[in-house]
Amino acid sequence: FLTNMENRSCDSPSKCTWVPNAETPHIVRNILNDRKKVLPDILECIGQTPMVRLNKIPKLFGVECEVFVKCEFFNPGGSVKDRIGYRMVQDAEAKGLLKPGYTIIEPTSGNTGIGLAMAAAVKGYRCIIVMPQKMSNEKLFTLHVLGAEIIRTPTEASWDSPVGHISVAEKLQKQIPNSIILNQYLNPGNPLAHYDQTAQEIWEQCQGKLDYLVAGAGTGGTITGIGRRLRELSPEIKIVGIDPLSSILAEPPELNKTNITFYDVEGIGYDFIPTVLDRTVVDKWMKSNDHESLNMSRLLIKNEGLLCGASSGAAVYLAMKLAKDLPKDKRVVVVLPDGIRNYMTKFVSDNWMIARGYMDPPAPAGSESWWNNPLPVEIITKPITLLPNATCKEAYDKLKKESCGFIVIVNVNDRVTGYITLQSIRAGVMNGSVKWSDTIEKIIVKQFYKLPDTASLGRVAVTLEKELLAVIIQDTELGEKFVGVVSQENVFEFVSK
Fold this sequence. Notes:
alpha/beta; Rossmann fold; CBS-domain; 3 domains; four-stranded parallel β-sheet; 16 strands; 17% strand
């Protein structure tokens, strides 16, 4: 059992001694519950998720072979990560590393946090989850009602940054007595949960007949555990890994070359190679992009009734590309890691998809004269700006003095990091999260839309239906250049004319 106590980096070389068909030194944890009977608690509902045939989507893509999907969103916490959350807790308890009154801390993109928080709720542990700002509010709200404490970190922080989610979790562990980081990036319980359980379920559900297994890679535990076990059961099975553009998990390294620096799909990809990821088990890597992934997730929902998440779309889209060239007698299995619940305000929302440029905005009646026109320069304004080290009192006084609705926060490189309003300052002071003398860092609204200066007026209008402002940027050879902002008021006054 490996924990942060060994002071190992999350990308350190693996100490795993696995070779195919070797005797395991680990405890084998199989799922033996009988769903026809009353179960002792919700943790006993983890696993035994359904395998479902895809019917319409293969036809849309000209695929003749069978394509099945393993629906991991049927786990009680809503994702494949329930399996590893419970497994890591069980292993830590068995080793005496997790005892009553202890605190579980975990850096995560959200789903592992939900699995751990659910286990902590049932077993009575305190739970602290550290996750990047990029992750959805739905994950945040779910963690909150499960009783977890949540700390957000900057999305742009690298994995080894002092302000990144991994480093922040490690600092907390040193400060809080009787606390432990189960550490999904290092913990052998991560791949073992899939080796013992998920892979065996897939094998039995397919009655031993499958030719390709397609799965996304984040920490790498899912594809490593499933891939190793299936390889033992049938060496002919091909394992295909899905990795988003701007991530570096895929091999050969040339696949990872791209100008893209950010992706919206959550839960897959990293800027380092996690210890638990065994890339030797992957026969073929394929790179995903947001546009294809998110639209495929919506297709899966609309055409197959599968209420899946964004990374499911990434895996299925590339599985279709793979399967299109396969003969009719082949069978492909795709792992769908999580469900729709986590993304109700993201790819499920037409407004979000349009604002992010993944869908074209339909013109409503009466807007034909301006909807498709380019964004007029005259409605782009240069806002009042502040650096994030300004105090709440300074920001409040400036907002009152200038009689403006918001102030945009920029860093020393003139990159927009968010905005603040009178309401956000007042709320922070009244609920005690900040004092007048504190910097505005804690109350900056960091979730905002960035639109290119080439966006249509219709796309801007849709974005601002539910947003106070949109930041306008220009793509240059040196990267993004901040042009200005467009507010609801600017657009309304222009189109009203």
